[in-house]
Design goal:
Length: 515
């Protein structure tokens, strides 16, 4: 019995010694204790109305409460040296900029340059006591080292090391976690509801512009739902526009409402030289909140159906021409070899309903599709030839890396027309020759006329027609000859022309409105 007790005693002592040794080693390596690696507790969203007076202490109180949640982020990345500048919108800056180049251009031979260590700076905000931080993807993209300074830390102090947990290039968001924690508890941000803000609402931005830590700027919401380009050239995100001063280094910092709650992540500016012009953009916090659980897993998975839709809203003329009851819906302008094409969708279809929910506009359709799990089969109602049809589309996974690497379509080569025919829509056409068809890799039996010239100030240019486009369909009718093209366009009079053209290996819808 005594021997058994002794064995149990020594086993317990060995286990305790191993635990203590592990904690000592972790502290020496700057690693977070195991208790720090908990699950993310997403801040609750406060959707109650913004009410109450604004007085002399309002913004001071917001600044005092929210500033401790805002952090300064500095990164190091290894990049190949080039002849161009290394500054970006909110800037990775080369620490060697303006140095070590005096000899160039004075008869000295250029030598291959070794990769440079490039430093970057941005902002972020803490969302969980375990050390989770939200920032922009472009602040930490490609970083080999990430250091974080909390509010109150001196610039001469060593920053706290952090790691990337997950990133998303579409929302330009990144979730970080501190790998070493401060001795004191950390402050955590509160979330507001970005869906409740409106133009004219007061907002505050906190960040580290030009590495001036915890800088406060105040302004108003200038607009909501602004369609802004993303790192993926073919995709847009709806953002909050504000005139609160945002400059290089503000990236990743919070945009706050008058309760001090985060309603957006400051992401873009419009600038003529890197400085503030009163036009800044923030990704709505509701958008980020929805992808946070996936950021925790390291990757955001989205659905796709393989269509491009017109960003412009449908007009009254469109409603009449297409047989719609109202202007809700999203018109398909291009289809790739994906789920929609397999389900029978066509260029020119107007998507009215997705998975049982009405589609208000193109942006809403994109959000619906993105939020649908790949592998799911959903019913999609479309208007085609003034009749409603239902297609069953199986969602596949969206690969943003592939889309990001795909170059933007190039304008077709210029033409030397013999006798171009004016269409009355701001462009001229000529008959399609067999040689042109081979050069453009047209599928057998495709094409009626080729666009030879486009008036840069005309209706066709506004609708997206470019020289070299091959017209294959007009308002739902296939055209196979120059005569059919000119006859179909003449018959339209002043009506809108929905022209399907073959360009860069695929068909695209161009909507040409004379007025």
């Amino acid at each position: 019995m005594a021997g058994r007790k002794s064995t149990i005693f020594y086993s317990v002592m060995i286990a305790l010694s191993s635990l203590v040794a592990g904690m000592v080693i972790a502290s020496q390596l700057g690693l977070a204790p195991l208790s720090m690696a908990g699950s993310l507790d997403i801040p609750k969203t406060n959707s109650s109305p913004l009410v109450g007076p604004i007085d002399a202490g309002t913004f001071r109180n917001i600044a005092q409460e929210a500033s401790p949640t805002v952090v300064s982020i500095r990164t190091k990345a290894q990049r190949q040296a080039s002849g161009g500048g290394l500054e970006e919108l909110f800037g990775f800056q080369s620490p060697f900029q303006g140095q070590g180049r005096q000899g160039q251009g004075q008869g000295q031979a250029r030598r291959p340059q070794a990769p440079q260590i490039v430093q970057g700076a941005g902002s972020g905000f803490i969302i969980d006591k375990s050390g989770y931080i939200l920032t922009n993807n472009h602040v930490v993209e490609g970083a080999t080292e990430i250091s974080v300074w909390l509010a109150g830390m001196n610039d001469l102090d060593l920053g706290l090391s952090a790691k990337v947990v997950g990133t998303d290039i579409l929302t330009d968001s990144a979730l970080l976690q501190l790998t070493e924690m401060p001795e004191h508890p950390i402050a955590v941000s509160k979330f507001g509801d970005s869906a409740t803000i409106a133009p004219g609402d007061w907002v505050m931005a906190i960040g580290n512009p030009f590495q001036l830590s915890n800088t406060i700027t105040v302004g108003v919401v200038s607009a909501v739902g602004r369609q802004q380009p993303t790192a993926v050239s073919s995709r847009f995100e709806q953002m909050i526009q504000t005139d609160a001063a945002i400059n290089r280094g503000n990236s990743g910092g919070p945009l706050l409402n008058i309760r001090g709650e985060v309603v957006g992540i400051n992401t873009q500016i419009v600038s003529d030289g890197g400085g503030n012009l009163g036009i800044g953009f923030a990704v709505p916090i509701n958008t980020i909140r929805d992808v946070l659980p996936q950021l925790m897993k390291g990757k955001v998975t989205r659905g796709r159906i393989g269509v491009y839709v017109d960003q412009k809203p449908l007009t009254k003329t469109d409603v009449e021409d297409l047989g719609l009851s109202n202007s809700a819906g999203a018109q398909v302008t291009k289809i790739d070899d994906g789920p929609a094409k397999k389900a029978g969708m066509r260029i020119g279809d107007v998507i009215l309903d997705f998975n049982g929910k009405p589609v208000k506009n193109s942006a809403e359709l994109v959000a619906m599709v993105s939020a649908t799990a790949p592998g799911t089969t959903v019913p999609v109602k479309v208007m085609r030839a003034k009749k409603v049809q239902t297609l069953n589309v199986t969602i596949e996974e969206l690969n943003l890396d592939t889309e990001r690497e795909t170059p933007a379509p190039e304008t077709a080569p210029g033409l030397n027309p013999d006798e171009p025919t004016d269409t009355g829509f701001g462009f001229s056409v000529e008959g399609l020759t067999a040689r042109q068809a081979r050069r453009l890799n047209l599928p057998s039996g495709t094409g009626g006329a080729i666009v030879s010239d486009v008036d840069p100030a005309g209706a066709a240019a506004r609708g997206g027609i470019v020289p070299g486009d091959v017209i294959t369909e007009i308002n739902g009718q296939k055209v196979a000859t120059l005569e059919q093209v000119t006859k179909a366009l003449t018959a339209l009079g002043d009506r809108t022309a929905r022209i399907v053209v073959f360009r860069d290996g695929g068909e695209v819808l161009a909507t040409v409105r004379k007025r």
